[in-house]
Known about the structure:
The chain is mainly α. Helix content is about 85%, strand content about 0%.
Amino acid sequence: MLTDAVGTPEDFTTDTNLRPVTWTFDYLRAIAGLVAAVSITGLLLYVVSRQRRQLPAYVMLRRMGMSSRGYRRSLTIELTALGCWAWVTGSVAGILCLTVASCTCPR
């Protein structure tokens, strides 16, 4: 009967050979979350390591007439540029890996 074929998506992935594929993508999603956590931690460690050097620079910039708002803006620009550069570099590396993988895989 046609009604026997109706089910939920979980029934479909459980009853077929698609379970390993779903595990693969769950694994990749977990790895992506781990990479994001490591990246954010690295950025925070970068900011903390620069904090010791930033204090004398901040004092000198204040003496030269730069406002604290301008200092925060320059720091925001620096961190945004760093994040954008990391995103572009990661995207290019990912595209290169996909290109190499698609060229070497037999069809």
